[in-house]
Specification:
The protein is mainly α. It has 9 helices and no strands. It starts with a helix and ends in a 5-residue tail after the last helix. Mean pLDDT is 76; it is low at 1-5 and 93-109.
């Protein structure tokens, strides 16, 4: 007997999976520039296929949206397992410091100290946001998603995402000014 999940996934074509994997690979390319694009394509496709195992159509979430996000995180996990990426502070044998270490700021330099202070400021301001506003900012700045990709996730128009982004930036700027963090 075929389960509802297996039946739904059998209806998903390879073209759909490849299209989603290409979107995931494009997002990964922006974050992990040092990884070969063919490798990112392979990890993205693997991530999408692994995401299928976690998908439940009864939850009412569109498969493409689910697979693009779950697939991205599963692809990153697979790259970590293969030693291509590592978490900060990971000192397990066989995990090289590689290009990731080059991206970590050197706390002894003035420029890095300013960057760390700016990150802490941004983190504290982001905590003041709620729900979709915080999610929008994280998708744009952390996941490096485009307004179009965010619009499809939040199920709103691209112009609405742009307007909300601008509104949130103004809100954060006023909040930072009221706290004396910026002038």
């Amino acid at each position: 007997m075929v389960s509802g999940n297996e039946q739904y996934l059998s209806e998903q074509g390879d073209e759909d999976r490849l299209r989603i994997a290409r979107l995931v690979a494009a997002r990964l390319t922006r974050r992990y520039r040092w990884v070969d694009r063919d490798d990112l394509d392979s990890y993205a496709y693997l991530g999408v296929r692994l995401a299928e195992r976690h998908y439940d159509p009864l939850r009412g979430i569109d498969f493409a949206k689910f697979a693009s996000f779950k697939g991205q995180y599963l692809a990153i996990d697979e790259m970590r397992k293969d030693g291509l990426l590592r978490r900060v502070g990971d000192s397990r044998p066989g995990i090289s410091n590689g290009p990731v270490a080059e991206d970590l700021p050197d706390a002894s330099s003035d420029q890095s100290c300013h960057r760390l202070e700016a990150r802490e400021l941004c983190a504290s301001l982001l905590k003041s946001l709620e729900g979709d506003d915080r999610r929008l900012m994280l998708m744009y700045y952390t996941d490096e998603m485009t307004f179009r990709e965010i619009a499809s996730v939040l199920d709103i128009s691209e112009s609405a995402v742009c307007l909300r982004h601008k509104s949130i930036l103004g809100k954060l700027q006023r909040l930072a000014a009221s706290q004396g963090l910026i002038y």
